[in-house]
Every structure is written in structure tokens, then in C-alpha cells.
Amino acid sequence: MKIVQRPDLKQMSTLKMGGQALAAYFPQDYLGLEALGKIWPELGPDVLILGRGSNILFQDGIRGFSIIVWEKRDDPVVTDGIEGKVMVQVDSGMSLPGLLGWCAKHGLTGLEGLAGIPGRLGGAIAMNAGSYGAETGDALKSVTVWTPDSGIVEISRDGFEAGYRKFRLKYMPEPFLILKACFCFEKSDSVTVRSKMNKYYSLKKKSQPILKNTCGCVFKNPDKLEPAGLLLEKAGFRGKTRGGVCFSAQHSNFLVNLGRGGSREALELISEARDAVLRISGARLELEIKVV
Fold it and tell me: Which domains does the chain have, with CATH numbers?
């Protein structure tokens, strides 16, 4: 198991912002998990399970937590297939774009709407990433998790809940590390699946700053109200800049690090935007990103 002391948090998130954590642990196999379990009591109560960090805002300075990253990412394995459906087991350390590319190659449909979303599969499951009508949890049939108390446990569909940008195990407490996931995909053909992915990727590229240093959508869309991006635009935050951070001129709900941004500026801008939206529309915006 690789261990990095005082890891640079700028290198562990897509927003490229933050100071240092106490340490980062990278178990790459089950022996690594065994070693992690032995030292777990020494890590203290503040442990962050991290994927690629594509929906997180790390604060500057020395942060008092340790980070766990599961890095195992072998190729997906087809485990079963019946009546036009295929069961596929995937390591959670695999990148989401990598899984989508594999599905396109093998003509498996179900997650095309997620094209253009960065990050690892474990993180996509943990926040139930979704786009264009597709959510990670829709095709998810089971997950294999590790906890310091229970070790490795397989959880079937009735043992977890996946809702709007949230994922919860019903009968096991946090923290837990997602090791593997089993998906049920429908059979299609490579040309059709790849065409759909290209379409959704092009739509995202036109409407979202997916090639810049962002952490995805800052706020969740309020229930039964206008989307958060539209509310922010009406409040005057499209392109709004504070120091080296801005809300994107392309999509108002995306926070962008212009290359020199710090967490203080980012949090001030987020707070100002939330207050303005509440004042103008009465909507109380809830964070989609995680601030640590």
C-alpha cells in the first residue's frame, strides 16, 4: 500500500485547489486493505474516502484528515447475460470515461448520458452521478464494499438507496470504501452506443466548461423550481469573478479555477451567490459539491 505524507490537495481534485491533508493511503489490492485495517485506529475520526475529487472543494492550509483512495482498476468482467441484458463487474478505481469507452466498444447501453463527466466509478456511485436522464444508480445491481469493522461485504440492490446526487447503504454505517460494482446493461451495438455518447459529450462541451478546472455543478437543482444555473444567472452570477475564481460564463452553476484561485475566494463567491438567489427568488440552494 502506497502512503503519501502531507499530500498536495491541488493534485487530488479537478478544481486544483486546496492545501495539504495529513496523509493519503492508496490500497491497490486486498493485501493493501488488510494493511489499512491494521492501522485504521491510528488514522483518527476524520477520514475522507476519495475518488478523483471531481465534486470537491478542498480548503487551503493544513487539513486535519487522512485520505483513502482505492486504485484497483482491472478491466470490466462480464459475469452473466440473459434476454438481451449483460451483467458486468467493474473495479471502482476505474475511471468513468474508461467504463463508458468499454461499454461503447462492447455495444452495451445504459450510461451514455454520463459522457463528459470526469472522475472514478467509485465517486460516481457515491454521489449517484447523473446527466441527460441517466444516473449511475439506475443500472447498478450490487456493490462490494470494505469497512474497517466488517471487512469486505457484497451489498445487493435492496441493501442500498440511490437518489438525486446521493447514495446510502441501508444497513452499514459510514465510512465505507466501494471496491466493485455490478451493473446490468442492455445489449446494443458499438456504433449506436458510441453515437449517443458523442452526442451527449458534444452537448456538454457546448453548454458546460468541461475542459476547465472545475468541480462540476456547485448547487443541486431545487425541487419543483427552476434549475440552479438559471437561478444563478438571474441573480447576476454568470461569469461573476472573485480573485482567481469565477462562476462560468458558459454555465452559471459551474465554479472555475482560473489558475490562481484559493478556497477563501471560492467560498466567499459561493456564499454570496446563495444569499443573492435566496433574496431574489426565495430558493435555498443546497451544495452539490463537498467542502472539506
Answer: 2-68 (3.30.43.10), 77-207 (3.30.465.10), 214-291 (3.90.78.10)
